[in-house]
Amino acid sequence: MVPQNLPAYAASLGDSHARLDALADLSQRLLEHCRARGATQAEVSCSEESGLNVNVRMGEVETVESTRDRGISVTVYFGQRKGSASTADLRESSLDATVEQACAIARHTEDDAAAGLAEAALMATDLREFDSWHPWPIDADRALDLALACEQAGRDADRRIENSDGASVGTGESISVYANSHGFVGRERSTQHSIGCALIAGRGDAMQRDGWYSIGLSADDLESAAAIGRKAAERAASRLAPRQVPTGEYPVLYSAEMARSLIGHLLGAISGGALYRRASFLVDSVGQPLFPEWFGIEELPFLPRGFRSASFDAEGVATREAPLVTAGVLQRYVLGSYSARKLGLQTTANAGGVHNLQVAANAGDLDAMLRGMGRGLLVTELMGQGVNNVTGDYSRGAGGFWVENGQIQYPVDGITVAGNLKSMFAAIEAVGTDVDPRSHVRTGSILIGRMTVAGESEAAD
Description:
Layout (H helix, E strand, L loop, with lengths): L5 H8 L2 H21 L4 E17 L2 E19 L2 E7 L4 H16 L32 H18 L3 E20 L4 E17 L6 E9 L8 H13 L8 E9 L1 H14 L2 H5 L20 E3 L22 E5 L2 E2 L6 H7 L13 E3 L6 H8 L2 E8 L9 E12 L2 E14 H6 L1 E4 L9 E2 L3 E9 L1 E4 L2
Parallel strand pairs: 7-12, 7-18, 11-16
Antiparallel strand pairs: 1-2, 1-4, 2-3, 4-5, 5-6, 7-17, 8-9, 8-11, 9-10, 12-13, 13-14, 14-17, 15-17
Helix pairs in contact: 4-5
């Protein structure tokens, strides 16, 4: 069927394109075996990943981990009965057994009217790369040197840094092939690298922890190790001597890295699985105004070096630039083919998730956002999972800074911010230009005009 020594064979070919060729050949052979066993449709996903991760703490090496993984997943359909099986063993006997197991599962399942591949006419034909392949030729010794330098720079930056939770350096490569019985074969390859540091300021009961990290598809996109350490120190020290605020209703400004979570809650509520189960507070919301008229979100799958750039989704469907929210109105849901069929709709090419979201800004940087807010809470940390996707009720532990006259006055913690997501979306007053580039959800800080903040029991001024 395939060479039993395929891993060594692929590695001997040396480059990622050759490895992708080997995986593509494997996927075609597996599809042939699925057809030979009577499957009416089939799909195969093959992947290889490798990486290096190191961690240090207080100037000492804690861990050095080299990883190498692979996976083969086979899904077959007998009419509208589905079966799936997977393996990491590339011996011919194991691959045969995986196909047979998927077929056996399918033969014993019930028909599902929504089961099956995405429609053949929707398969991607313009397959591109997006400058996402930038291997970092770094060995463990050099990675440890960077991590140690990062932590040391942070510990040296402020005498109030008393301890450390450590620093880390990571690098990884991933290649994958998705193929199905429509004749589609899609190849992807990407790299991702990171440097991070977490430091502790103060001592005893007065300790405060914070950190910083940088992540990129290319090592050239990373902040310097020293800069990351210094920023981690600055963030940790700025949180010393926190206070609470009186319980009341205030404007709440989510920093850019926290604002991503609000968009994440939106995505969870408009994703197919939640919708067809009627487990979302945004059921039947397409075409409805959810945000202010100026607010918009675009999906941009073709961004060079985008974290989630892709020509096709997890089912081979061609991706496309498309609005998610325009003039405050929800334009569509986030669907793969299965959830789309359950809802009587068509896939939005989002099997596997969204591909780079851009939230439109209507304000300036963080300083401008603070001045615009005047008085209120800047949230820089969120804790807990107090979000009900069915009702939209929202209640999360938070930390950050109290703002007066557009200026940060003092750190706060031990508080809770609460509201209802639908009301919170409608109450967004501004989105900043201070985009955090470390995610496929690109948004600046988000100001919500009024939320309940639970802190001290006495009434607010």
